[in-house]
Design a protein that fits this description.
Elements: H1 5-43, E1 48-49, E2 52-53, H2 56-61, H3 63-83, H4 86-96, H5 110-148, H6 152-164, H7 173-184, H8 189-203, H9 212-239, E3 243-247, H10 256-261, E4 265-267, H11 268-276, H12 288-291, E5 300-304
Antiparallel strand pairs: 1-2, 3-4, 3-5
Length: 318
């Protein structure tokens, strides 16, 4: 059976978001390699005595330098990414032009543009908070290393781990090739799993632990999806649409909320009632139109008018 209009639009929207998420992830993963190199370069200047760090005063004084590195390397690239959220807004507006709605809903108004700028500021703030948190994390590591008299090499390895986890740079040629491959090929999921496994089993890299790369890659997707969800909901309100179809693909680890509701149509009131009265693993705090199934969820709420749909939720208009 030929795909109906809503399915085609959902697939277009899904591809636009996935492509942008992959591009932004790749960009920031590469940026974190640069960030790691600059942090290590700065930390390498710390004085040692008897081969060990000792001066806690110098360790405290390095904090402003670390903050500047995070701002100049990491947050500059984050801002570049978020400026491209205009592409998402443009694709959403284009979709409204395909629906049986007055044509004014297929145009960006002055109010739309103002909202887009505000939403972009909200998303940027997540990354800014993360950067500030890791300024403290890196500063604390340097301070603690100075208190305990760690060697500079020991401190550097821990700093690398806090930035990139197992994907930190390496003096070992093959390990570095694996790290570079993972950074440069975000779409090759199976190959990345193999490369990651090799880093773990052969080079003893520990996948566990909290690091800047882990949180960054999570926020990249959730930020894009959040922006998409908020702007879509705003445009739906403007168009007088208060029913939504829950769209997306069910995969092996899909959450119960997504498995249960994908393909179904709900009123806004029903969505909020289900959301407020259901608990599942991975559910995120926030509005259902923003966070959907939870962290890293790639499902969408597609605005619809029930009159457009047949009893199975398929688009029935020509």
């Amino acid at each position: 059976m030929a795909k109906d209009l809503l399915q085609r639009l959902q697939e277009f929207r899904d591809k636009a978001v996935r492509d942008l998420s992959d591009q932004h992830t790749e960009r920031l993963v590469k940026t974190l390699q640069t960030l790691e190199a600059e942090v290590i370069s700065r930390a390498s200047d710390l004085p040692v005595r008897g081969g060990k760090l000792f001066d806690t005063r110098v360790a405290i004084a390095i904090r402003p330098s670390l903050k500047q590195i995070l701002e100049n390397v990491y947050l500059v690239k984050v801002a570049d990414n978020i400026n491209e959220y205009d592409k998402i807004a443009g694709s959403i507006v284009a979709q409204y032009g395909e629906l049986p709605l007055p044509k004014e809903f297929a145009e960006l108004t002055t109010a739309d543009l103002e909202l887009i700028q505000q939403l972009k500021k909200i998303e940027y703030a997540q990354f800014e908070d993360l950067a500030n948190e890791f300024v403290s994390t890196l500063s604390d590591e340097i301070y603690q290393s100075s208190i305990t008299g760690s060697t500079k090499a020991e401190m550097i390895e821990r700093l690398k781990g806090k930035i990139n986890g197992i994907y930190q740079s390496s003096d070992n040629e093959e390990a570095q090739e694996l790290v570079d491959f993972i950074a440069n090929n975000p779409e090759r999921t199976e190959d990345i799993r193999t490369a990651t496994s090799r880093l773990q089993t052969i080079y003893g890299r520990d996948r566990l632990g909290e690091n800047l790369r882990k949180y960054t890659t999570q926020i990249v997707q959730d930020s894009i999806m959040g922006f998409d969800g908020r702007f879509t909901k705003y445009k739906a309100d403007q168009a007088g649409l208060n029913h939504y179809k829950y769209d997306g693909t069910i995969i092996g680890d899909s959450r119960p909320f997504c498995v249960e509701n994908t393909g179904k149509v709900f009123s806004e009131e029903e969505i909020k009632r289900i959301w407020n009265n259901t608990v599942w693993k991975g559910k995120a705090q926030g509005d259902p139109f923003d966070v959907r199934g939870g962290y890293n969820c790639r499902h969408f709420w597609t605005p619809v008018n029930p009159e457009w749909l047949d009893e199975d939720g398929n688009y029935k208009l020509d």
